[in-house]
Each structure stands twice: as C-alpha cells, then as structure tokens.
C-alpha cells in the first residue's frame, strides 16, 4: 500500500501555500507560543483587596472576578453571610485568606489557582477527650479514571460531622467510632455509603451519575445550561457512553443511543425537497459537509472529525432547544464538544483497534447454475422454431447474430445447429449445471477479500492554572473489499485555551485531516450498463480462472455478430477481448483529500455576570480524484473503437488511443463569525437570570469541476488535444459510439451566505420554575430579496416545573420530577434553490457555440421553510437515581415547504414541474427513554436502557399531481399525495395469476387485468418506507474488572419494495430486431413458478415467458414489479453490537507507571431478524459481522 509520504502525481500541486495557508500556519504558531507564554498565577503573586461591610459570599465573588483564583467549598463549611471589612495591599494570597478566615471555623488550602475551603479541624487536645470513642479515618476520593475529586463531601452518619476533600482529593475525618458509616458525595456522581469496620484508610472511587438532572450540563453551541433549568427537549451522551464500541462513524454512535434519531434524521422527515439532515455543531461552530455531485445534486455528509476527541454530544430536538439556529433548526441540531484537559498531571492516552470484516457474497437467494441451465433448457423445449425442419438454420442464425451470448445458450444453439452432437450438448449442459455458484466463488477468491480496518489514536492533555492544551493524532489504514482498493487518513487536532488575565481568555484550535486512497472501479459482478460493468454476460457457471490456471477470456466471437466481427478484422480495430482478471488492475481511482478548520475565540469578562464572546472559524477543504483508465483496459479499447467512423472504406480514429484520465476537484471555502453578549446572575439565591444577544455571519462556497483528458501519458503527463466540438457531432459507424459534454469538462458552483441576529433569555425561580425564550432573524441569498421574505423571525418559548423541589412534595423514592413544555418556530433551507433564474451552459454540437438550459425559473417569493413545533415533556429519576428517563410528546407542523408544483404550459414548462414554497406536512410523535440500574453490589452491576420513538408523518397540502402512473410509483416523493405519509410506497393490488400463469392486477374499476392499467386511480398507498416505530435496548453487566454489553436496535411498521424478483426480464436486442428474454440470475423462488394449469392456486410466481410466447410482453414484468405482494414488511431487529471489555487492575499497571489499561473485543452487525428472507436481504441482513480487537492505555 502506498503510504501518505509517497506522492501521487497530479497535473498541478495538491497543496499550494497561498495566503490562507500562510495565515493558518501563523495561527498555529501563535497558538503554541501562547500556550507556553500565557500568564500564570501562583502563590507568589501579590494581591491588593478591600472590602467594606461585605459578606464573605460577595468577597469570594469579587476575588474570583479580580483574580484568577477559583474557590471550592461546601456552603455548610463556610459562613457566607458573615460581614467583613478589610483593606490589604500587595500581600500574598495566604495573608489575605488568613485575614478573612483566621479565627473562624473555616480552614483553607491553596493549590495552584484553586482555593479549597473546609471546616477547620478540631484542636488535638479536644480530640483526646473522647479518645476511647473517636476514630480518625483518612483517604482519597477519585473518579473512575483516578482523577481527584476536589471538594467531595464526606460525612459521618453517626455524628453528623462533615469534611471536604482538598485539591488532591484527600480527606481526614474524626468519626464517633470505628464501626460507623461514612457517606461520600459529589455533584454528578453516585453517592456511596461505606462502613468503616475499623479501617483507618478508606480510598473511594465515585462513579458518574448519568440520571441526576442537576449534574447534567446541556451545551447548545451558544450557551451551557443545566438540565434542571432546561425547558426544551434534549438528549445527551458522554464519551464513556460509547467507549465500548469502535468509533468509526458518528451516525453509529447516535443510532440506538439517541431516542428519535433514525437513519440520519431527528424526529422524522420535515422537508420535501430541502435539507433533511440535522445541523452539526462542533465546539460552537456549525459545520456543514456539503458536496456537489456530477449529477446536478447536493449531498449532505456527516462532519469530519476525530471521534476519539468527542467529550459530549447534545442533540437539540424541539424549538426551545434548537430555534436559536434559525433557518437551519427545523431538522434538529447535533452539538459536539471535544475534550479539554483537566488540571493536574499531563494526560496521555493511546488507543488502537483492528477490525476484520470477512467477505461474504450471499447466494442463498440466487438462482444456481442448475437453475439457470433449467431455464435455458426451458427456452429450447418450448421454442416452436426448434421443432421444425429449419431448426438448424434458425439456431445458426441466432449464433451468427450473437442474440444469446451465455455459455449455456450457445451450447444449446450449437447442438441444434448441428455443430456438436446432442450427446455432447447434454454433457456440456450437465457439466455447467453442476457448477453451483462457481462464478461467485471465483469473484470471492480473486477479486474480493476480507476487509481490515486499523485505527490508532494518540492524545495528550495538559492544564495549568491559566492554560489548557490538547493534542490528538489519529491514523487510519483500511484494506477494502475490492482488490486494489484501500485508503488511509491522518488527522491532527490542536486546542489551546489561555487565561491571559483575570478578564480575558483566548481559545485557539485547528483540525487538519489528510487522506489518500485507491478504488477499484471494475466490478466483475455488475452486469448493468455503464463504465463499471463486467462488459460481458456471465452466469453462475462461468469462471474467472480456467481449470488449467489460465485467465478466462470473453472473446468478441462470443459477444458480437458476424458483421461486427468482420469490421473488427477488416478495419484493424483494437481487439475487444475482455479478461476480467486483467481488468481488475486497469481501472483505478486515486483520490486525495485535505481539510482544515481553524478557529479563534475571545472571552471578555466585564463582571461576574456580564461577558462578551467573539469567535471566528475558517474552513478549507479540497477533494481531488484521478480516475485512470489504462490504455490496455477494455473501457479504453471499446471507447476508441466506438468513436471510429468510416471514410473511403478506411477506419477514422476520432478519439486518440492512450490512457484516459478524468480529474475531479471540489474546493470548499467557508467562514463563520459570531459575537455575543452573555448575562448570567443569581439574585438572593433564588432568582437565576440568563440571557445572550449576538450576531452571526456565515459564508460557504463550493466549487466543483471535472476535466477528462484523452491520449494521456502518465510518465510525461502529456495528453492529446481533441476537438470537442467535432467529437460531439461524431456517431460511430461500427459500435454506434457518441460523446456528451460531461465527458470533457463540467463546472459547478454553490454559494450560500447568511447574516443573523439573535437573542435568548431564561429565568429560574428557586430552582423550581423556569421560563425561556429565543428570537432570531436570518437573511440569506437563498431567499427572495423582498423584506417580506427575508425578515421572518424564528422564535421559541418554553417553561419547566421541577416538582420535586416543592415543599409539599414528600415522596422520598422520587429523586427528580420535572414537567416542561415548549412552542416555537424553526426554519429550513434548500441549498440548491435561488430566487433568480438558474441555468447551465454547454456546447451545442449542431450549430456551434454555447447553449443554455433553464434549470429553475425565477422565484422572487422564495422563502425558507417554516416548522412550528409543540413539545410537552417529562423528566424523572427514582429510587436514588437507580431508574430514570424522559417522556416527550411533539407535533411538528411544516409550512412553506419547498415542493414540486405543477408546470404552467404558457410559461414553457408544460409537462414539467418546478420548485416553490408549495407544501405543508405534519410529524407527530412520542419518545420514551428509560435508563436504570437493575442490580448493584460492590463487585457486580447490571444496567439497562430502553428507547422507543413513534413518528407519524402526513402530507397536509401540495399542489402537484403525477402526470403518469410510473412517476407516482418510481418518484413518489416528487409527487406526494395529500393525506398520506410523505415516504409512502405505492403499487397495484394483486389479483393473482391467470389461468396461464401471467401476473394480474386490479384496475381502477376493480377488474383483474393482465396488462398495465396505467391508471393513477388504480395505484394504492401501502405504507411508509420509513419506520413508524424505532428504538433500542442496551444492557451492560460489570463484574469486577470485566464488562459485557449488547445493543439491540429495532425498526417496525415500514415497508420495502422487493426489487430482486423471481421473474425473467426482457431486453432489447438489436441483432434480433426486438425484445428477447434475458435469462440471467434472479430470485431463486423462480423454482416455485407456475408450471401447469391449476398452479395459480398454489403460487404467486409467474411462469417463465420467452420471446416466442404469444403472451410475451413488457407489461407482465412491470406490473409484477409494482404489485403489493412484492411490497414487504421491513420490520426488523438487529443485534448491532456486543462488547466484552477487561480493565487491568491498577495495582498491576502501576508498576509500569500506567493509569489505566482496557482491552475490548467487539462484534458489530452481529445478526438481523426480519419477517422474510427477501426482506432481510434487501435490508442488508446477510452482510458479514465485523470483529474488533482494541486496547486503550492511559499514562
């Protein structure tokens, strides 16, 4: 495999150090410089401080504002209402603290810029008064990673005495005796009670409590709020929630762990033609991985980031949570924050995993060699032309014209033509029929392979009193399924946060990702048209390698008629042999991609309550690919031969012979600037007020271009000059080849700009009642210029009630109970829509010059899509946080949705449609999330989580109707029906097989017909292609250092069309002058086909109809494809992941100076349960599971 340091030759430099790159380099250098040069507070710093009749609480607040020190204390250990008057100038921090807390019941300890306040220990002489009863216990309190918990509370249940841990997590407490019980508590962690039992040293490890609302911080990208104050619908994950699985895809992290997230969408489909994916936000900045395709469409991809760096994921679902994002809020928002170093020693971690996915080509539903030979024999047995005296002439004619090119059919025709004996024919057919799935076995052996994915991640974190630095490096090396296909990427993430002084902080960060890959584009299994097909007819009995070890060759004689063969010979054209084993290395795509996101954030602290943020992010992405067709490849030879014309009885080569290379490039430039004012203040310990107000500018530009060069020489980088205008007029004389504009060059550009102002506000009274609101205006070049369409605000309002905080609430078994409700408006866009006329241009080969084609008519009334969301929710936690969860009911009403509208003939649109704000749609649903600890002992615990989501979609209005039946079925989402699910699947009602084994459906009048009714009224809605019910079940068991977990994901109530049918199709054959039956691999249920009158009572599989049959027509295949019996129940249950982990004991790894070592063994995509074999196949249920071996080491 080529490594990243090797160079791949392109026609121009891959990276060019322009101004943007130079600025990025300077930015990185500055970040690293600041990391080392940041201002550092220490115990030697001198402080001036004065307070006049001020409470201790206000003095602490003033100290935190005017210095870089932060206080940690328990309110029971400090008299915050004590009045002090002091005036100190240029003194050490210890002197100042002694002035404030000397001769009081509060003691202090200074560590770095942290000050821990604790209850002052009793004098030694008093401790001896009750020496017989009192007992001293000391120890250390840490989290599961061994990090000290500063300020953890330790209390003696016997005496009520309490202390707190210091900066090192250490404590010492005098108990009433050696048999008392100590309670250990820390916000956001599970409280523990431990019996002393005569021990003088007790070290405690507290586990995070994911169910305690007060300990959960929700991050929206604009602000952070605690779960107890939130009025919106949120779901959140922490890194430890998905540490058991391989981190290879963001959607795999979210699937099964976020209720309501299904198939890349949140709470269903909210747009008809616009963006349907949620908005992704990384460290406060929206990140949109949008790509243009050569087919005039837009792809929304998951954001590129190092998944190992993720600290938290917060999913914003309703208007109160997400409407702050304005015109991109309707589909929900996924907010990702990356890891930040914690104070203490340098944290270094390394993880590595190897994933193996065995290759599997499922053949359990395919016709075998014996089945194919049976069908081919059936063609001969029923063919009346082979029962006449002219049978040999008829058979020879079919051979000469290459009407049938499979080995079995040619064997049969040679037998009937007299070229071989009947015995020899039957012997060959028997031999072919005995081959099973030989061709697929050869493909697996020679063209495919097991997949291997290797990933290594190294991260480093260091935090001091005034600086925090993080760095991570990720390397991935993947061997893909197709031979010669592989890729590798390297990603670097740098973050630095510096507290420059007491009122100013600066965050700098950059993410760089570089990758390269090779892709094998020749597919020996694909028989479809196009440049990636096998190029010849193959059956299960064919081979890639002959029995004597030589490579199989598909010769022109087996594929072309006599005229073509004579032309190849007489005009000296390039040979048309196809050797699949050689083709595998002649059609490669080399790709390179580069991405950089660099940001800067400033925070100015005007006071304890008022702060100002200014932040800027710049993104640059480059994706380049070279698709090289070797001159010896069949594609090049057939392309050159196809463009040959005849002049004076000689061949004219209009296209030069040589390599063909197609260069594709996509460049992304984007920037985002935001500034906002923040206010957060608590008055009288009861009135909590927060607000933000800001403005934002975002600019995104995508540029896409392709350029194809002919007669290319990879050594000299030279290529032949071709006359594009002339070539567009050429029509090949022998192989009827021609070219289109896209085979030379193509350019596209997409430019989106936004300017926004916004604000939010929240108020909480006494931690019981919360209200919130938000307002945002967006202006964009995507909408009409009239202010009526630009100045449409998005807004939200929400309220919440923490019932458990009420004095009348006395249910001790309920830890938290909150009711919340919200209402608001979010927006959505279609990035490829514009208020002005859009067109594309290309050369006109007939008259010369350029011609323009209108892509969309001008639409000055274009506006963003509006979605109004109502949400009612309940959050709860029971039995000391052993059981908790959420319940949400929502209604999402979409209006002004961009949808197809009926064309206006007088405007030149006629039969066509165009896109305007023309649709309304509703999504109603319920979401339930339950998480709990079933069993918990000192050495064993069993946790489980159940998620359930229900979503019902309905199209309320759209002004469009399918003009013909097949558009209603094949393009249902372009022509949705009012009153149905937008994702509906349509078809005809099955009327059974006729007495002759032909498919029948009911027409609009209810009559059974064997032909295609072609009536819209006969087409019915058979349900949704998107699950109505979805969710998951996750369970994990932990015993000492071992943990075992499993994730099940279920989807119910949806349908899938069976596209792999037990029926032969028809193909047009030029040599035959009409349609002939295509005997090829189909669903092996064809063995159950109708064979004789009366079978229609027992089977729904049509008989095999050949081209000579009076009932041969294309309608039979069409209506059988569209009929309701081939619309299958797609409900399924998947065992998505099983994980076994082992955490090495700390006393063993300490000898190697390690903090933690964890081994993981995973199985992914383990098994799929579905209602039928065909449904399971269509859902990908027969793909191989993946096996992962991983290790994680913390230093």
UniProtKB/TrEMBL annotation:
Primary localisation category: membrane
Gene3D superfamilies recorded for this chain?
Carboxypeptidase-like, regulatory domain (2.60.40.1120), TonB-dependent receptor, beta-barrel domain (2.40.170.20), TonB-dependent receptor, plug domain (2.170.130.10)
Q: How does it sit in the membrane?
A: Multi-pass membrane protein
UniProt xrefs under SMART domains: STN (SM00965)
Alphabetically sorted, this entry's keywords are: Cell outer membrane, Membrane, Transmembrane, Transmembrane beta strand, Transport
UniProt keyword Transmembrane, yes or no: yes
Superkingdom field? Bacteria
Q: Which residues form the Secretin/TonB short N-terminal domain?
A: 69-120
Where found, per UniProt? Cell outer membrane
Question: Do you know which InterPro entries this protein is assigned to?
Answer: Beta-barrel_TonB_sf, CarboxyPept-like_regulatory, Plug_dom, Plug_dom_sf, Secretin/TonB_short_N, TonB-dep_OMP_SusC/RagA, TonB-dep_OMP_SusC/RagA_CS, TonB-dep_rcpt-like
GO CC annotation terms, alphabetical: cell outer membrane
Family as reported in the entry's similarity comment: Belongs to the TonB-dependent receptor family.
What protein name applies here? SusC/RagA family TonB-linked outer membrane protein
Q: Which species is the source of this protein?
A: Flavobacterium fluviale
Give the taxonomic lineage as stored in the record.
Bacteria, Pseudomonadati, Bacteroidota, Flavobacteriia, Flavobacteriales
């Amino acid at each position: 495999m080529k490594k990243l340091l090797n160079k791949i030759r392109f026609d121009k430099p891959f990276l060019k150090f322009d101004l943007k790159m130079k600025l990025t380099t300077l930015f990185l250098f500055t970040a690293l410089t600041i990391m080392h040069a940041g201002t550092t507070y220490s115990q030697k710093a001198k402080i001036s401080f004065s307070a006049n009749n001020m409470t201790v609480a206000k003095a602490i607040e003033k100290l935190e504002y005017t210095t870089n020190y932060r206080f940690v204390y328990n309110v029971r250990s400090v008299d915050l209402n004590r009045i002090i008057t002091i005036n100190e100038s240029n003194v050490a921090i210890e002197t100042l603290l002694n002035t404030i807390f000397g001769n009081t019941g509060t003691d202090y300890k200074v560590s770095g810029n942290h000050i821990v306040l604790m209850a002052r220990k009793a004098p030694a002489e008093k401790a001896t008064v009750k020496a017989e009863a009192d007992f001293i216990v000391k120890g250390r309190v840490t989290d599961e990673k061994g990090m000290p918990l500063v300020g953890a509370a330790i209390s003696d249940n016997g005496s009520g005495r309490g202390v707190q841990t210091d900066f090192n997590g250490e404590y010492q407490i005098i108990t009433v005796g050696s048999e008392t019980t100590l309670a250990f508590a820390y916000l956001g962690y599970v409280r523990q009670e431990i019996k002393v039992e005569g021990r003088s040293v007790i070290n405690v490890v507290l586990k995070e409590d994911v169910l305690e609302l007060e300990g959960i911080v929700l991050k929206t990208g604009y602000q952070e709020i605690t779960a107890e104050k939130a009025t919106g619908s949120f779901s959140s994950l922490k890194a430890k929630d998905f540490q058991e699985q391989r981190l290879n895809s963001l959607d795999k992290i979210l699937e099964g762990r976020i209720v309501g997230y299904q198939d890349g969408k949140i709470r269903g489909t909210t747009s008809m033609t616009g963006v349907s994916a949620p908005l992704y936000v990384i460290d406060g900045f929206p990140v949109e991985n949008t790509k243009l395709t050569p087919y005039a469409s837009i792809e929304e991809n998951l954001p590129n980031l190092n998944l190992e760096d993720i600290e938290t994921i917060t999913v914003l679902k309703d208007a109160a949570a997400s409407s702050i994002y304005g015109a991109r809020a309707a589909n929900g928002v996924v907010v990702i924050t990356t890891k930040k170093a914690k104070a203490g020693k340098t944290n270094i971690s390394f993880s590595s995993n190897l994933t193996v996915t065995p290759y599997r080509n499922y053949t359990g539903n395919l016709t075998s060699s014996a089945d194919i030979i049976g069908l081919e024999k059936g063609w001969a047995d029923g063919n009346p032309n082979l029962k006449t005296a002219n049978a040999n002439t008829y058979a020879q004619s079919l051979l000469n014209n290459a009407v049938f090119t499979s080995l079995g059919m040619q064997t049969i025709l040679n037998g009937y033509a007299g070229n071989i004996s009947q015995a020899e024919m039957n012997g060959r057919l028997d031999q072919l029929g005995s081959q099973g799935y030989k061709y697929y076995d050869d493909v697996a052996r020679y063209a495919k392979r097991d997949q291997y994915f290797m990933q290594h991640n190294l991260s480093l974190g260091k935090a001091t009193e005034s600086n925090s630095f993080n760095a991570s490096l990720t390397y991935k090396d993947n061997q893909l399924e197709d031979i010669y296909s592989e890729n590798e990427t390297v990603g670097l993430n740098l973050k630095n946060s510096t507290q420059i002084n007491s009122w100013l902080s600066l965050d700098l960060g950059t993410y760089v990702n570089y990758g390269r890959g090779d892709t094998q584009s020749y597919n020996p299994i694909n028989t479809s048209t196009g440049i990636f097909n096998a190029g010849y007819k193959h059956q299960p009995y064919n081979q890639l390698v002959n029995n004597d070890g030589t490579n199989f060759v598909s010769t022109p004689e087996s594929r072309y008629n006599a005229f073509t063969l004579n032309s190849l010979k007489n005009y000296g054209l390039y040979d048309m042999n196809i050797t699949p084993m050689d083709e595998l290395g002649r059609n490669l795509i080399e790709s390179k991609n580069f991405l950089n996101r660099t940001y800067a954030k400033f925070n100015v602290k005007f006071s304890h309550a008022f702060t100002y943020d200014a932040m800027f992010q710049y993104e640059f992405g480059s994706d380049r690919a070279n698709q090289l067709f070797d001159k010896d490849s069949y594609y090049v030879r057939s392309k050159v031969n196809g463009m040959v014309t005849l002049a004076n009885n000689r061949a004219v080569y209009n296209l030069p012979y040589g390599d063909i290379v197609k260069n594709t490039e996509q460049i992304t430039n984007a920037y985002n600037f935001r500034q906002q004012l923040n206010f957060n203040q608590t008055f009288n310990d009861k009135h909590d007020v927060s607000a933000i107000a800001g403005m934002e500018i975002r600019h995104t530009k995508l540029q896409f271009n392709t350029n194809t060069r002919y007669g290319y020489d990879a050594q000299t980088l030279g290529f032949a000059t071709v006359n594009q205008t002339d070539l567009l007029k050429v029509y090949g004389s022998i192989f009827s080849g021609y070219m289109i504009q896209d085979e030379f060059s193509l350019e596209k550009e997409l430019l989106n700009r936004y300017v926004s102002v916004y604000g939010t506000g929240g108020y909480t009274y006494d931690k019981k009642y919360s209200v919130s609101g938000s307002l945002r205006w967006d202006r964009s070049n995507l909408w009409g210029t009239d202010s009526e369409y630009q100045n449409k605000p998005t807004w939200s309002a929400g309220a919440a009630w923490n019932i458990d905080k009420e004095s009348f609430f006395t249910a001790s078994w309920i830890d938290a109970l909150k009711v919340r409700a919200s209402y608001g408006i979010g927006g959505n866009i279609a990035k490829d829509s514009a208020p002005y006329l859009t067109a594309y241009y290309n050369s006109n080969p007939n008259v010369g010059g350029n011609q323009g084609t209108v892509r969309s008519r001008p639409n000055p009334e274009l506006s963003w899509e509006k979605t109004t969301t109502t949400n009612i929710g309940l959050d709860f936690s029971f039995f000391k946080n052993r059981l908790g969860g959420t319940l949400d009911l929502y209604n999402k009403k979409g209006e002004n949705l961009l949808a197809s509208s009926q064309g206006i003939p007088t405007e030149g649109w006629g039969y066509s449609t165009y896109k305007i704000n023309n649709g309304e749609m509703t999504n109603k649903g319920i979401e339930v999330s339950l998480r709990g600890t079933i069993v918990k002992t000192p050495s064993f615990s069993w946790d489980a989580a159940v998620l359930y989501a229900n979503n019902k979609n309905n199209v309320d209005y759209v002004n469009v109707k399918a003009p013909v039946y097949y558009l209603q079925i094949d393009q249902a989402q372009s022509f949705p029906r009012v009153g149905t699910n937008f994702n509906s699947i349509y078809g005809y009602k099955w009327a059974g097989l006729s007495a002759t084994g032909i498919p029948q459906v009911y027409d609009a009048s209810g009559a059974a017909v064997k032909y295609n009714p072609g009536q819209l009224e006969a087409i019915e809605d058979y349900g949704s292609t998107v699950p109505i019910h979805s969710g998951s079940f996750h369970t994990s068991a932990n015993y000492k250092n071992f943990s075992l977990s499993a994730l099940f994901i279920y989807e119910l109530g949806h349908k899938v069309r069976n596209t792999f049918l037990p029926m032969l199709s028809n193909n047009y054959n030029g040599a035959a002058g009409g349609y002939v039956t295509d005997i090829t691999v189909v669903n092996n249920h064809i063995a159950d086909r109708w064979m004789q009158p009366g079978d229609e009572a027992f089977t729904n599989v049509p008989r095999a109809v050949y081209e000579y049959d009076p009932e041969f027509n294309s309608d039979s295949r069409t209506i059988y494809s569209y009929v309701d019996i081939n619309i299958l129940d797609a409900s399924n249950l998947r065992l998505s992941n099983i994980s076994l982990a082992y955490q090495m004991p700390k006393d063993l790894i300490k000898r190697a100076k390690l903090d933690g070592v964890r081994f993981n063994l995973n199985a992914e995509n383990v098994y799929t349960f579905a209602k039928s074999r065909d449904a399971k196949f269509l859902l990908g249920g027969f793909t191989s599971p993946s096996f992962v071996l991983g290790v994680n080491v913390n230093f």
